[in-house]
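Homework help board

Subject: predicted structure for assignment chain

Our instructor gave us this sequence and asked us to write out the predicted structure in token form, then describe one feature. I got the tokens but I'm not sure how to describe them. Can anyone check?
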Amino acid sequence: MDKDYSPLTLATIRALNDKLYEKRKSAALEIERIVRDFNNAGNTTQIRQLLKVLGQDFALSSNPNSRKGGLIGLAATAIALGKETTEYIPELVRPVMACFNDADSRVRYYACEALYNVVKVARGSVLPYFNDIFDGLSKLAADPDQNVRNGSELLDRLMKDIVTESSSFDLVTFIPLLRERIYTKSPFARQFLVSWVTVLDAVPDIQMLVYLPDILDGLFHILGDPNQEIKKMCESTLGEFLKSIKESPKKANFSHMVNILTAHSQSSEDLIQLTAVTWLKEFIRLSGRSILPYTSGILTAILPCLAYDDERKNLLFDADNKKNILFCYKNTFIFRVLEKNN
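My token output:
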């Protein structure tokens, strides 16, 4: 053997490269043992050398069995390191995430499993890599292989737990990625994204309402999904945001959202149109005269609705036990509300 794979023994190397899972698992147990010995002895040099071998020579190998061996070896290393895993996050996380895009579905599955084991030990220490992990998970959520999707769901739940309990989650850095991904057409990815928006909005220390203008348009697109479960998830999430706006109107950026709502109030889909009109009603009520610059656009969007047949007009303007009447005074309603509020 020309290449230096130390500190791995020849037997461990062969087992890691084996096509049988049982052989690779036995190699992983051996790696756990030697890493614990290195860690107890404070031998960081050997640990980093081992991580280099597993990450570069195995996890990034052209041989799929070697990649699987590298992944299980990296997971074993994290388990053996325990709390000391935090000192080796880049060496553990980067090669595993590189396998998220592997052509072999089993490699993608083992990558999910490996990162789950790393994250389970490292917890909040992986948050500097959150965007990369989220980006990978958003794609794996729509993976054609059910086993891969199942593996990504386990990792996804763990990441949500970590973000929820963390005080160092960087929302500002995350929002641009969320804004980009939220326009996906994949139903699995849409479920994934809405679930994350819901989780983040429920965390008291995370002010999602401040960044709602960045994702509101995307949420309305998801609201039109043909899948009823996704539609209901999104409707519920939007309902929670509107509730928060009613409770804390000063935190809402009405001017950055009103044009989005105006556009969707012209949707041909009843639920999207009704939701947009309902939001506009609340915006007019809560924002007062600050909404005046947008009056023309609102009227342009809403007035054509008055020509609908009675059934659809009632759906839009008299929903929720006749409590959602919006433009009962047609184009004078806006100004009457403003007059009342001021």
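Reply (TA_rk): Your tokens look well-formed. For the description, you could write something like this. DSSP finds 18 helices and no strands in the chain. That's the kind of observation they're looking for.
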